[in-house]
Amino acid sequence: MRKxxxxxxxVIVLPLLTYSVSSVSASLxxxxxxxxxxxxxxxxxxxxxxxxxxxxxxxxxTGSIVAGMASAYEKTCNSxxxxxxxxxxxxxxxxxxxxxxxxxxxxxxxxxxxxxxPANNAWRTAVxxxxxxxKNSGDGTEGYISWFLGTEPSTAVFYLAHYTVAAFYVxxxxxxxxxxxxxxxxxxxxxxxSDFPVMALGVATWALAQTGPLDATLVxxxxxSKPYWNLVTLAELPDILISHQxxxxxxxxxxxxxxxxxxxxxxxxxxxxYTEDTIFGTLGLAAASGADPALEMDExxxxxxxxxxDGIGPGGMVWERLSQEDGVYYAYAGEMLTVLAKLIIxxxxxxxxxxxxxxxxxxxxxxxxxxxxxxxxxxxSDLNHNGDVDFSDFKIIADNWLKGTGY
Length: 407
Known about the structure:
Layout: H1 30-44, H2 62-76, H3 79-96, H4 102-113, H5 122-136, H6 140-146, H7 153-169, H8 175-186, H9 197-211, H10 237-242, H11 275-291, H12 298-310, E1 319-321, E2 325-328, H13 330-342, H14 357-365, H15 377-380, H16 391-399
Antiparallel strand pairs: 1-2
Helix pairs in contact: 1-2, 1-13, 2-3, 2-4, 2-13, 3-4, 4-5, 4-7, 5-6, 7-8, 7-9, 8-9, 9-11, 11-12, 11-13
């Protein structure tokens, strides 16, 4: 089994333990941010040679980047982003030889989603074959998951979350085994044993909310895993996740801590503001809210979106920290695209961040259009993708009227 060498979050001693949102440049509208990041990734992708489709020094992270580029194409219909994603997908197929990282399997499902026929294409077939091969191997799916033993727990959760979402996308026979494996590994995450505890909670919530109910199921029913999870249920994950986000009203609202205790791990360094923690923390909240709108998490989600947009630098650069400090990584840029695509409010036709009169005007221009198809869906006005611009789409705009405009 190939192992991901995860980017290490470096803790640096600073006089200030958090950064102020006001210290970075004004945030871009979400659509412009997606285009800025995607344009940079497209330009800097390796286009020829044995590494064609990957990004320099980050070939092992191609899955995370390709998933983001596929999401960018879905939202912008820019064919260059699709071409880039497909070139990256070809690299994954050739380099992985059928044994995919979790984020690679997830990336291939993203390519399937933007294919001419999402139900029947080479990307979907490759992912389905992977899960069939794992199930039919000597050790089976449980054995494959057991190979994570000895892996740092939050890294194992990262991969299993992506494996789980991909397994459900292709309706893999053992998809529930993958989901249970994710839950079991989440129970092993705590501040002492894990490098990225809050990130793990965020990515697990994202995957679990998409693949089944967040219900009364215990994370650790045996009570033998980390004490943090004692008597915690899946239904409690969104509230626990939001407890690790800096609340609205604080200058750092929307960003996430990296440890459960909101400390620095004894390093004397920073306690919050890592880009990846806020990416997956916000993604987890968005997925939970999408599965159960009654959770009423809009304020926290919008705050997370604002913090993420503030962290994008000139030319679509994405740093290790939202304060635009430490290293710049393509993988974080790909993950940023994935979360931003999920944070677009339905009805925000012009992708400026909120649903208001310019969106209604664009919608009116396409009123009663028919035969709408992917990717444009009648200039983004067929909001429910049923092929027509009609009252069902108008209701979506009405239901989301003025959402996001205050952030």
